[in-house]
Amino acid sequence: xxxxxxxxxxxxxxxxxxxxxxxxxxxxxxxxxxxxxxxxxxxxxxxxxxxxxxxxxxxxxxxxxxxxxxxxxxxxxxxxxxxxxxxxxxxxxxxxxxxxxxxxxxxxxxxxxxxxxxxxxxxxxxxxxxxxxxxxxxxxxxxxxxxxxxxxxxxxxxxxxxxxxxxxxxxxxxxxxxxxxxxxxxxxxxxxxxxxxxxxxxxxxxxxxxxxxxxxxxxxxxxxxxxxxxxxxxxxxxxx
Length: 240
Hints:
It is built from 4 helices and 12 strands; from the N terminus they run ααααββββββββββββ. The protein is of the alpha+beta class and 240 residues long. Strand 7 and strand 8 form a beta hairpin.
């Protein structure tokens, strides 16, 4: 089918190559004899007709270029096989794991996943950046149920950044392996707030930007370390 379509494109190219001679012949651009002074059949002069023929040929050439450069990729896309595949990343039999998952993809095409392990009440991390899947426990503080509502981002350096919720202490938490090993930070521990339904992004400078929900004040909140230290801001707390 692709060969037939490309053959059709070749026919268009051939038509483009001969369009000039056909147009000139069709308008009667034939040299008049010395004794033949009959008026031309066209209201246009020979020069005007030649200019019109040139413009039409240019249009046909552009159309032919479109078919040659654009259409083959469209035809080939029809035959692409992009079948879905699935992989078990973490199936530890003693736990119920994989809730509150979030995924990001690095510049190399590797995948980075944050998720919640119900059995151990922990924040987990998985990646296939080495070529095969591996999992890591990021935060399993024994006194806390932590790791829900996670969100993950990947910086240009390949480091991962995760925002998540500490259910036991009602805190917004942050974790990163930017320094090589995982470290965690409490970003919002307002006593009256249940803060931490999160979403995170990372800028080109490596600064993190987090939006989250504060249940206690029914507010949209924002946290960032773009200035070098963490700060939080109430973005919307409209009471109505």
